[in-house]
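From: lab user (bench 3)
To: helpdesk
Subject: output format question, protein + heme C

Hello, I'm new to running complex predictions and I'm not sure whether the block I got back is the full result or only part of it. Here's what I submitted:
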Amino acid sequence: MTTQGLLLRSILLLTLLPASSLAEDASKEDDKESQSLQHFTPTLTEEFKELLRNADMEAGAAFFDKKCSTCHDIAEDGINQKGPLLWNVFGRKAGTAEGFEYSEAMKNSGHSWDFATLNYYLTRTDRAVPGRIMNFRGIPEDEIRANLLAYIMKFNTEPPELP
Ligand code: HEC
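Helpdesk reply: Thanks, we reran it on our side. This is the complete output you should expect:
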């Protein structure tokens, strides 16, 4: 077959292939990539801001004690444990607590921690930072995350304003 004939055959084959199957695979991959904090800037919904304003700090503290404190200290005089010290985590560039060995994924994620990035990370940690070594999947419930963030924000030299 001539080169031209081959070319025509390939074009024909390509047009016969269901175009959607190729396109779908590609966009699924793109989606996954674009959902990481390296490529995605999350924002807060008005509903979530409302939850933050009405947050139950005691519930946040209880949740932290139960789910996070096994790996994280948060008090000013705390130290890195299995996870990095969370004192002053608001405003920190991700992956930069002194003396803690982060994953490459966290070190290279490029974002800083604020209400929106923490909220997004804590919803599903593997989506936000693929390759993270924090062995905790996430918190699907908005209200629990809001309570938790309202608690964590206080552990800061200069606690941030509520958004
Ligand atoms: C099983 C241990 C473990 C648990 C449970 C855990 N973490 Fe972590 N956390 C880690 C580790 C390890 C890292 C470092 C991740 C990396 O380098 O990829 C981390 C990183 C983080 C970071 C990024 C900090 C920075 O310096 O960039 C935040 C924020 C965080 N954790 C919050 C929490 C909160 C809030 C909870 C409770 C809901 C929690 N973690 C539960 C182990 C844990």
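A quick orientation on your result: The mean pLDDT is 89. Let us know if anything else is unclear.
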